[in-house]
Amino acid sequence: MIPFPEHSLEAEPYYLPVGGEVEIFEQCHARKLAVMLKGPTGCGKTRFVEHMAWRLKRPLITISCHDDLTASDLVGRFLIRHDGTQWQDGPLARAVREGAICYLDEVVEARQDTVVVLHPLTDYRRVLPIDKTGETIEAAPGFQLVISYNPGYQRMLKDLKPSTRQRFVALDFNFPPFEQEAHIVRHEGNADYATAQALVGLGQRLRLLQDRGLAEVPRTRLLIAAARLISSGVPVKQACYSALISPLSDDASLLEAMRDLVDATF
Ligand code: ADP
Description:
This protein is an alpha/beta fold. The protein is built from eleven helices and ten strands. The chain has helices at 21-30, 45-56, 71-75, 91-98, 112-115, 162-165, 178-189, 193-207, 220-231, 236-245, 252-265; strands at residues 6-7, 35-38, 60-64, 76-81, 84-89, 101-105, 127-130, 135-138, 144-149, 169-172. The radius of gyration is 21 Å and the shape is elongated.
């Protein structure tokens, strides 16, 4: 069983560039530089890396980080079999051998002793030492390390160490400008353009509620979810309440303020 998703992407994953991120990533790939995609959840980081893997014709191995993730989960382990033990590469080791793009999503969730395994892959050495076998794997051409990092999230509890973050070129992700976000919502949400524009306008007004204590503001992903419900026949306001508002807060006064904004939009 392969525990982590790995795929060669055949169809182009739709991605609308917002700045020069495609060109910069291509340069990083050509120059063997590791990349950090920085920004809140739901802003297109995963879609971007899928698109870049497709563009660069590299397999993509994605690892969702969590606080139980060990170095062995990344590098590999000996499996006990009836006739002895056998080494099995982890997803990082496979990516290094195969020259894949290895995407570690939400890397800050992983423990520090897990993250340090990445260090020798991010400098001129481009190697992965495997302590348990004594092997040192040299990264195949095309291998690239990409991490995503949400700076605001759990900032007081967890953060990336400077010794880790200075090994990456950082690309910032945030809300796309109005017109671009409307195109994305139309495409991904299967919506007509007027509805997409109205949803993005509503999203922008909801985002202003951050000043009134709304901790999580709606990202593009939620606008797309609302558009999908609308295009499948759910009444517009109901779709907004369910997909756009209710996930964001449990606070009665904030929910009321958000409902008022929906009612004023549609
Ligand atoms: P993240 O990895 O930052 O949490 P995702 O890549 O999963 O976010 O983005 C959420 C959704 O938003 C994607 O599935 C995609 O539909 C859409 N999206 C966001 N930004 C873009 C963009 N620039 N181009 C195309 N789709 C986008």
